[in-house]
C-alpha cells in the first residue's frame, strides 16, 4: 500500500545524461571514485577536465539523488504536517524564482519543493545553460541550484529524519549529503551562512574524514 501511494505522487522524472557523451564519461568517473569510499578525493576535479562541465555533471547527479530521497518521504511531507518550508524552528524559506514568482511567497514544504524541483529541472533542460560551451552565467546558475537543493536536505534532516530512520534510509541520506557537502566545499559553491541549518552535522561528517 505504501509504495502505491508513493508512486501515485507525481514527481520529477530522472534527468539522464546521454550515453556516449563526454559528460556521461565524467559521471562514470565520478561513480567509480565514489566506489573507492574516499569522498574527498571523489569530488576533486579530474585532471585535464573543464570545471564547468564537472560541476554540471555533479549538479545533475545531486538533483537525481535528492529527487529520489525526497520521493521516499513525500507521504510524510504534506500541507498539514509541513505548512511552511522550514529547516528547524529558526530557518524558514519563501519561494521566488525571479521570473514567474518575483516576490518571495510563503508556502508549504511540499509546494515549495515542487516549485524548487520544477525550477531546477527547467534549468537542467535549458540548453543555453547546461551545455558546452557553457555561458558566462553558468557558475552563478549552478550555485543557485545547489543552494536550493541544500534546502531540501535541510528540510528532510530537520523535519523528517524519524521517517528516514523508520524506512532505514539514514545511511543512504548521510552518504548522499556528505558527498554533496564535500563537493560544494571543494569548489566553494554555497555561502557558509546558507549552510547554517545543518552546520553541526556538516562539522561531524567532516571531522570523521580528517
UniProtKB/TrEMBL annotation:
Keywords of this entry: Kinase, Metal-binding, Transferase, Zinc
Alphabetized InterPro entries for the sequence: MOB_kinase_act_fam (IPR005301), MOB_kinase_act_sf (IPR036703)
Pfam hit, one: Mob1_phocein
Binding site residues for Zn(2+): 77, 82, 155, 160
Keyword set includes Transferase: yes
An example molecular function term from Gene Ontology annotations: kinase activity
Top-level taxon: Eukaryota
Protein known as: MOB kinase activator 1A
Organism encoding this protein: Cariama cristata (Red-legged seriema)
Amino acid at each position: 500500500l505504501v509504495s502505491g501511494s508513493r508512486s501515485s505522487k507525481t514527481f520529477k522524472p530522472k534527468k539522464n545524461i546521454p550515453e556516449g557523451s563526454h559528460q556521461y564519461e565524467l559521471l562514470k568517473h565520478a561513480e567509480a571514485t565514489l566506489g573507492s569510499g574516499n569522498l574527498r578525493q571523489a569530488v576533486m576535479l579530474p585532471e585535464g577536465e573543464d570545471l564547468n562541465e564537472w560541476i554540471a555533471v555533479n549538479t545533475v547527479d545531486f538533483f537525481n539523488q535528492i529527487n529520489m530521497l525526497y520521493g521516499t518521504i513525500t507521504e510524510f511531507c504534506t500541507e498539514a504536517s509541513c505548512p511552511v518550508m522550514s529547516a528547524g524552528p529558526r530557518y524558514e524559506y519563501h519561494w521566488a524564482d525571479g521570473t514567474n514568482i518575483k516576490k518571495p511567497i510563503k508556502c508549504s514544504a511540499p509546494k515549495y519543493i515542487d516549485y524548487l524541483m520544477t525550477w531546477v529541472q527547467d534549468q537542467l533542460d535549458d540548453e543555453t545553460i547546461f551545455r558546452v560551451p557553457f555561458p558566462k552565467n553558468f557558475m552563478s546558475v549552478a550555485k543557485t541550484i545547489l543552494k536550493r537543493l541544500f534546502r531540501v536536505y535541510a528540510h528532510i534532516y530537520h523535519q523528517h529524519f524519524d521517517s528516514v530512520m523508520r524506512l532505514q534510509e539514514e545511511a543512504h541520506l548521510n552518504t548522499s549529503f556528505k558527498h554533496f557537502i564535500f563537493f560544494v566545499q571543494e569548489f566553494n559553491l554555497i555561502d557558509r551562512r546558507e549552510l547554517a541549518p545543518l552546520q553541526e552535522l556538516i562539522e561531524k561528517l567532516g571531522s570523521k574524514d580528517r
